[in-house]
Write a structure and sequence with these properties.
This protein is an alpha+beta fold. Strands 1-2-6-4 form a four-stranded antiparallel sheet. The chain is rod-shaped and about 115 Å long. The chain is built from six helices and eight strands, in the order ααααββββββββαα. It has helices spanning 29-35, 38-59, 66-69, 78-81, 186-200, 218-221, and strands spanning 82-89, 99-108, 114-120, 126-131, 135-138, 143-152, 166-172, 177-183. 25% of the residues lie in helices and 26% in strands.
């Protein structure tokens, strides 16, 4: 047998309480929390919630809304904001001719200015050019009056009655360069048809200008 004797039970009913304390827990906050009145605990929880929200607002990074941070709308396509309107003939004539002058009003509804270049007039055998300047710029909210010179270069295959005639143009702004066709109503189609009838409705065997007497044309001048 060793020197360790039997373990004696501790009687909690001892009056003098004279027994050895070998350990113990220190007081905990939760023990004190549960001793507080219910009203005091509710008030403390409300204060903690307010303080936590304030700290979170300071520490958390701000949330950016792209729609609010960039209110500027994108630059529109030039063809979507450019409009052409036919005004009428710049001059009229009854004599046979292969050239006509047509007036238009060009507007830009929104966005940056649009640079315009006329490239064609509906059919092969026709050439078109804005005069006096082939290229021009239209600013937003303004109307630009332009005259387009249309000439017949080849009558073969040209319809004498131009139905739904249109102009081919190039439009350019800071977003894009677009090739576009503007279709006009009956007024422009009728005026263009008159030009086609004058240029191609009669015989094309018209005599050219007489030679000027140069060395290369002396034989032609004889007789």
């Amino acid at each position: 047998m060793s020197g360790i004797g039997p373990v004696e039970s501790v009687d909690s009913t001892d009056v003098d309480g004279s027994y050895e304390v070998i350990g113990g827990d220190s007081p905990r906050l939760t023990d004190r929390w549960h001793t507080l009145p219910q009203r005091t605990r509710r008030t403390a929880l409300a204060v903690i919630a307010v303080v936590a929200a304030a700290v979170g607002a300071v520490l958390l990074p701000p949330v950016h809304d792209d729609r609010q941070s960039d209110p500027t709308p994108p630059v529109p396509w030039p063809a979507n904001v450019t409009a052409w309107r036919y005004v009428g003939l710049a001059q009229t004539t009854d004599t046979p001719t292969t050239t006509g002058f047509f007036r238009f009003a060009v507007t830009v509804g929104s966005g940056p200015p649009v640079a315009v270049h006329v490239t064609g007039a509906a059919f092969d055998g026709l050439t078109a050019e804005a005069v006096p300047e082939p290229d021009f710029t239209v600013h937003t909210g303004s109307t630009h009056r332009v005259t387009v010179e249309i000439s017949v270069s080849d009558c073969s295959g040209l319809p004498l009655n131009a139905d739904l005639a249109f102009l081919d143009v190039t439009l350019r702004n800071t977003r894009a360069i677009q090739h576009h066709s503007f279709i006009f109503g009956s007024a422009y189609s009728n005026d263009l048809s008159e030009l086609l009838h004058r240029a191609c409705g009669t015989t094309n065997a018209r005599p050219g200008p007489r030679p000027s007497g140069s060395a290369g044309s002396q034989n032609v001048d004889r007789g």
